Amino acid sequence: MEHRDYMARALELAKEAMAEGEVPVGCVIVRDGKVVGEGRNRRETCRTALGHAEIEAIDQVCRTLGGWRLTGCTLYVTLEPCPMCAGAIVNARIPALYYGAKDDKAGCCGSVLNLFEERFNHHPRIYGGLLEEQCTDLLQQFFQNLR
Q1: What does the DSSP 8-state code read for residue 132?
Q2: Beta bridge partners of 76
Q3: What is the mean pLDDT of each run of 10 residues along the chain (147 residues)?
Q4: Of 79, 93, 73, which Cα lies nearest the Cα of 27?
Q5: Which of these is catalytic: 20, 38, 44, 54?
Q6: Residue of 14, 50, 88, 146 with fewest CB within 10 Å of its CB?
Q7: Alpha-carbon distance values, 59 to 18, 53, 85, 132 (Å)
Q8: In sequence order, which ranges of 67-131 are alpha helices (DSSP H)?
Q9: Of the candidates 23, 21, 16, 19, which has an alpha carbon nearest to the alpha carbon of residue 38?
Q10: Is 54 assigned a catalytic role?
């Protein structure tokens, strides 16, 4: 599989979130060419501020792999991570992150700030814009339907 394939799976998860009335964000974590964790937004469903796709996927991978250091993993998410999720990526030591759409209100890969350029002990490689058009379109569709 290729980067686009993993992001396509994240988009499928985002569509599942949207079908449940959640902001459509999906996340996939890959290690050694295999998906080891998935997540999607569930803030409304679970009534928690922690219900972000990245947090759900990271938690699943930690349980699956039996540890909190996710070295060797790559994270794919349809929306640029927020401060909480960027912090979780740093703390989990995830070495690479691909995101689709920019988040001009809360994005921490450069849209609002780049948390990964701060003086933390871990700095993942960031690749933005993977399937950006599809990710952005899905988000726009969701918010237009709310109005």
Answers
A1: H
A2: 28, 98
A3: 96 98 98 97 96 98 97 97 98 98 96 94 96 97 87
A4: 79
A5: 54
A6: 146
A7: 21, 10, 12, 25
A8: 83-91
A9: 16
A10: yes
